[in-house]
Specification:
By secondary structure, the chain is an all-alpha fold. It has two helices and no strands.
Length: about 40
């Protein structure tokens, strides 16, 4: 249980960090919208 919860938590944390990075660079990347792809 702890290992599965840890993997799920790490995955959510990685997606959260990627979402923050893409939201920070959204102004630079006007051609494609990564925020719409990251939001699961």
């Amino acid at each position: 249980m702890d290992r599965v919860f840890g993997v799920e938590f790490d995955r959510a944390l990685i997606l959260y960090i990627i979402n923050l990075v893409f939201n920070g660079q959204e102004e630079k990347l006007q051609c494609h919208k990564p925020s719409s792809l990251v939001k699961f």
